[in-house]
Queue: 3 jobs
Job 1
Amino acid sequence: MSETTPTRPTLHFDSHGDSGPPVLLVMGFGMRGSVWKPQVDGLKDTHRVVTYDHRGIGESESPPGPWTMHDLASDALRVADAAGFDSFHIVGVSMGGMIAQHVALGWPERLRSLSLIATHAGGLRSALPTLRGLSFFLRANLAPPEQRVDALTELLYPAEFVARADPRQLKQRMAESVGQRATRETLKRQFRAILRHRTRSRLSQITTPTLIVQPRQDILIRPRESERLHRLIPGALLSRYDDSGHGLIFQDAKRLNAELARHFEQAERRRPRAQRAPRRAAS
């Protein structure tokens, strides 16, 4: 079911599933919420899953800039409110993981669990990819459309995975990812928010049950950044995906979905019994 937030800037979001614990999926740089399709398909039968388009992406409004991570985190909360989520599990990938950190620090009472996939705690050194990753990142975002698919494929997936993947499935996935590309102004505003992202000194304050997912073949966000998050967030769990790149939400969807569901279930068991009754999404 597709809806928009009642508050401005209006954000487009999609709700999937009728019952189960609520889950908010927060996408990364320049991508629509629909890129979460592998997780939606894997979780919607047992969870109420919401995906959304960031401001300036897809059908969501694009307010004047500059934008900050606090703005983007507030957007995530507005989507959760519109979906009827009093509290929820939040999952963020890449830039979405940065946003999720700000939600966890600013509104900890709203979260049941936190999952951070292929992301970092901020700072220029953390934000810099490998030279190879930077080359593909620039081509994926600035090159003519006919060159973007190949560049994005190389950015997201190790060559070994591309060689053995079903060509039709991979082509469809890349078409979904490149699809309706964000404007350059939106990409600039998101990129500036990423450069100003800083949570390192505050991560010790997080008490939400946290899962950190580390794709060890990532050339966009260096794997060491997951190790750093693991050290800084008390009690966080670190899960290593030895053969995965930055696009592991597609590459290793089955394993990731099972791990997320298990993390949600463990967090649910920690909640006081009185808080476990599910709340139906607002109609």
Job 2
Amino acid sequence: MRVAIVGGGVAGILTANYLAMRLREEIRDKKAEILLISERDKLLYEPGLLYLIFNKLEEKDITKELKYLLDPSVKLIVDRAEKLDLENRKIKTKSNEFDYDYLVIATGSRIVPEEIPGLVQYGDWFYNLDGAKRLREKLSRFKEGKVVVSVMGIPHKCPVAPIEVTFLLHEFFKIHNVRDNIELVYTYPINRVFTLGNVSELVEKMFEERNIETRTFFNPVEVKEGKIITLEGEEESFDLLIAIPPHKGSQLIIDSGLSDDGWVPTDKFTLEVKGYDNVFALGDTTDLPVSKAGSVAHFQAEVLAENLSAEIKGLPPTARYFGKAVCFIETSFSEATYIWFDYETPPTFVKPNRFTHWMKIAYNRMFWLTARGVL
């Protein structure tokens, strides 16, 4: 039985490692094989980009080679997947073709800043490594003017990151004694500053206490030099635009005809790709109503590995994913809160405190153990 996993991000690596631990005997006896296909040979710990722009972490702290993260029994193929043929159970890569018995799609999401005219030319972001490096340099020199943090589409990776970066910008400018010279504005596409109502209420209150302005129902359609133009007919000036660009799923999903936007139609409990009993999806690539966050990929990988290993062993797959998500929210460089929720439970959170902040910092350091399936 060959399990092929397409995608070398958090979801793919965790699934591969959890399966390897559950299928030790089957792999040893050559009754099972785990194949991970990734177009990159390194993993980027994307939550670390939030800290990189403030020079709290470096690139070496947030990247690691896949071969050091994967269980030795997992076969790593570094190649670009170009087509998924679900009917014939084949994966076509740039240089090869692979059959499978079970397929796990973990192709993640990507930013598409080019979809908003002018954003590439006039905007900045921290949602990939190159963008974060450029923004780090600009922030180190920024002393006065108007900074706009603009969420330009939903869904996007790490939903709370725009809130976190806004809080941290406020403190960063205070530390450098220039906060009084800077106007800080946060924009969001819907009628509040976050999708979840009670989280939005907390954040709005904290923004007001910090003199952070907000704009809601704010949907950018074009960026010009020093100006954002919105669908609603508004304009917002800026000296520095920190965008959360629009997101799409992988081009592989679109090219394979699975969806028009790259989000894979997925059963919310079993993680089966709809219409197929041997194909699964998890992490950012699904169309599920959950956060596109690392914790979601973690919880989904546990469920998927349990069910897949059960099927391979001839046992009933009884595990279910119930929408569990946990997200830390940094409110300063010394305090944080967190939220957790699932399909049935609304989010709950604690008052921002130092202990939760240090939990987040500790997790950043221990993440590589999580990726290996240890934590």
Job 3
Amino acid sequence: MSDTRIERDPLGELAVPAAALYGVQTERARQNFPISGLKPLPAFVDAVIWIKKAAALTHKQTGRLEARLADAIVRAADEVLGGQHRDQFVVDVYQAGAGTSHNMNCNEVLANRANELLGGRRGEYRPVHPNDHVNMAQSTNDVIPTAIRLGALARLGPLVAGLDGLAEAFAGKGRAFDGIVKSGRTHLQDATPIRLGQEFAAYAATIRRNRERVLRAADDLRDLGIGGTAVGTGLNAERQYPALMVEHLRTATRLELRVGEDRVQLMQSLGDAAAFSGALRALAIDLNKIADDLRLLASGPRTGFAEIVLPAVQPGSSIMPGKVNPSIVEMVNQVCFQVMGNDQTVAMASEAGQLELNVMMPVVAHNLLFAMEILTNAAAVLNERCVAGIEADEVTCAHWLEQSPALVTALAPKIGYAEAAKLAKEALAKNVTVRRLVEEKGLLKGKELDEVLDYRKMTELGVPGEGTSAA
């Protein structure tokens, strides 16, 4: 048997692998774009297949598509959505504009499989044709922007769950570490006291604020422009088509979706995707800062801050025996850098549209969905393999706190800013603690000194020693 079959399209004949479910237009794209070796992400494949399934059901409902053909397309789509034939989606991420190649890849796979289910053969496209039937009332121009929205919304649940788990892990450590007072730091210099628990509780609050920001940005993605066809005007689509499509997509995806009010606008603009990507970028910025903090707090073990201990997950050096590195948070840093880069690509691509269409949609789809995927996975790993096992070094926290010249801040209301500054400078010069220097100078004594230099109270709203009198 031949390893290929001959198929035809408007450009002529081309040999296609005999075993392939895809066809001639996919093969042309495969040959035209040997760029990265990156194939479409599963979320993007699912999203387009959902659209094809919904279209078949819609056209069966309206009577525009013969029931047996529609049923075969739906069965083929369900096979793909169930995990079959995934190796047949082969078009490189970097492809011709708009995503026509990926759209046709999906059309051809479903057409060939539907024909097999009806007793036909691959490559003959009878009775189901990829354009006439699978792509009925559709254009790449409304399919791909709709798929971007569906793919992102489908990945939203796992991302939010990952953020919820990470936030709760930080909050748990906040509660566990609430009794540990340590030196705060601003500008990487000693600052007034803070509780280790307050730092971790703030990390939890930061993750939760980002969660809400992501959800707010995602809401705009629920407006679907499917039914706009070529330029947003809906040529070749029935009047009931947009509403029926959204109804069937709701059922298939279990997502909250809305019929877009202005399909021309939804085709012209990728602003909703760009805004959502921007929310992911903000999350990455904050998460990266938290990862940096964890690395600093765990630095050492003898020559750094060493106020917390991260779980050891692997040997840290190929040359230095016994070295253990903050491997998980280093991974998180790299993920965040990638997400920020993805957002820059999305922003540039979203700006690059002209008139009725933005043709840069394939790279937007990949970067947006890839950012969601790695953020979701990174949040889960950071939670499970790092934050959950973090321990505090109370002795080191207490040591650095006692050494901090910033404790003079609590004395400023009593002796004034200028005198407090002199004390800080003198404490550093003599290498003594603020408490000892105050005692030596007799500035404050006994109960008053204890109240003013109550480190725990210095981590709460109020003026240290307020209401006390001089000894």
